């Protein structure tokens, strides 16, 4: 039988950053509409992962990448011919569709639930607002959940809901509750501006939100209002307090630092972590369409760190996980932490494990890349899971090694942040 390699077919050879394995490859072949996946060696696989692969390959109706490890019995394992067991000892442990050509495994999905927002932050959107996508072209509840299920089946174990402001979407609690039922999804996180948080917190907790990031760029009410172009400082502070009361620990606070606006508040934000279980994350100001970014307004990680060290010279670095975007520190004796998101001065592309779906259903494999593929259109044209996965796999396969650097990004056409979902 003659096989044709599909769009999704990838042969990946060579060493990749962060992976000990010398080779990674999954070859997908198709013939007359039937898809054949031929996994090859991948020495990073654990025995447990290999077993999953082994059993699922025995069943042509099962995706080779779904989580069936829990159901694996010794008898089932022994029912597989010895030769096959040997081959499968080294098979790929993570979905090929979500693994890019540099070996990065994308197990973290950010879904934007809406393009709308009740604030107008200067760094996120142009003053005149953005042109909103007609409602019918945004993902419906069912479409959001279908995509979430598909990605989780393939190995995504963390989903962050963002926007626009995700907590203004009327079905947000329903969406979270349904996502909570997805087997394999370990973490549901929400990034919010905090305006509706205090009111919604009990429902969010009950629905199953594990992590909260709350944006707050100033501790001075008038300055807060200047930055976000709306009132609401006290509501956000109330949301932060209530999240702490309800046991979220840490409560992450996102602060975009901009020269001449709030960089003079760095030390006040650090001081907040003395008595509260907060992780204040200072984010380098990033360029997006319409936000008037310029290099001089950006305060780099190193500059922030130097300033904070002048006040707290014994600031300690806290080791993080491999794919963590934040560089985390702690003032000895303080309850909370601080972190720096250094997307501009020290990118974390080599360990990037994130994919994004915009509110209108486009998959973005890089925050700073303008290539997109519409999963909404695929869903609406009746694509099967297999077909969707091929399209997702092809997009992930095209992901670049790293973004083009801050100056190129600032010249590049991209959506405003509010239409991407941070
Ligand atoms: C786009 S917002 C969406 C969620 C929610 N509305 C909020 O503000 O938290 C997600 C995050 O992106 C951050 N963000 C937006 N524009 C940014 C920019 N130009 N540079 C750095 N961070 C930015 C915001 O501070 C926020 O923490
Ligand atoms: S950062 Fe969040 S709160 Fe501010 S305008 Fe963007 S989406 Fe709205």
Automatic annotation (TrEMBL):
Pathway: Cofactor biosynthesis; molybdopterin biosynthesis. Keywords: 4Fe-4S, GTP-binding, Iron, Iron-sulfur, Lyase, Metal-binding, Molybdenum cofactor biosynthesis, Nucleotide-binding, S-adenosyl-L-methionine. Coiled coil: none annotated. Residues 101-314 form the Radical SAM core domain. InterPro entries: Aldolase_TIM (IPR013785), Elp3/MiaA/NifB-like_rSAM (IPR006638), MoaA (IPR013483), MoaA-like (IPR040064), MoaA_NifB_PqqE_Fe-S-bd_CS (IPR000385), MoaA_twitch (IPR010505), MoCo_biosynth_MoaA/MoaC (IPR050105), rSAM (IPR007197). One of its GO terms (molecular function) is cyclic pyranopterin monophosphate synthase activity. Its EC number is 4.1.99.22, 4.6.1.17. Its cofactor is [4Fe-4S] cluster. It holds the Pfam family Radical_SAM. One of its GO terms (biological process) is Mo-molybdopterin cofactor biosynthetic process. Isoform MOCS1A and isoform MOCS1B probably form a complex that catalyzes the conversion of 5'-GTP to cyclic pyranopterin monophosphate (cPMP). MOCS1A catalyzes the cyclization of GTP to (8S)-3',8-cyclo-7,8-dihydroguanosine 5'-triphosphate and MOCS1B catalyzes the subsequent conversion of (8S)-3',8-cyclo-7,8-dihydroguanosine 5'-triphosphate to cPMP. HAMAP family: MoaA_B. Isoform MOCS1A and isoform MOCS1B probably form a heterooligomer. NCBIfam families: moaA. In the N-terminal section; belongs to the radical SAM superfamily. MoaA family. This is Molybdenum cofactor biosynthesis protein 1.
